[in-house]
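Chain A, query sequence.
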Amino acid sequence: MNVSYKYERDALDPSSPYAASKAGADVLALSYFKTYGLPILITRSSNNFGPYQYPEKLIPLFTLNALEGKPLPVYGDGRNVRDWIYVQDNCAAIDLVAQKGASGEIYNIATQNERENLEVVHLILKSLRRSKELIQFVQDRPGHDRRYSLDTVKVEELGWYSSTQFEDALRETVHWYQKNEWWWKPLREARQEAK
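Chain A, predicted structure.
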């Protein structure tokens, strides 16, 4: 799917079972609003990142692999585009929607901070002073969307704007993982044992 902008009421068109599960959850929740009047609010956030993110996600995975001198497996050509939002900004937006949002409405949460995956990888390597030779291109995932992009007018009308610069938050996140091996190392070891 090549998306330039996705509005809250656009038809859902998931391209993978994972995406379909999220779309199904939205539809189910909205059915409770329509049928029973439950105060349902839906937020759709762009890609989150920050401290304590599970190590299989892109930013922690590539940070930890780089720290350990392991390959960074970049899907396809690395040109997939994602909007990145720092976790504290996302939490502030969700809190605002919970307080001021209208029941039965959907709110996109994004920063208009779109980056190609390869650019994010380069920033991580630069922050850690590691070689680009760690990048290893791997086969793309089936149903992998080329670009996600969200229109955020509705959440901005509630008064929300991102307060974090992407590069600063990324650098802080990378350094957090550097300093907190006690948190992520047991998770990575447990995952290896499970394989």
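The two ends are 31 Å apart (CA to CA). The domain at 17-194 is CATH 3.40.50.720 (Rossmann fold).
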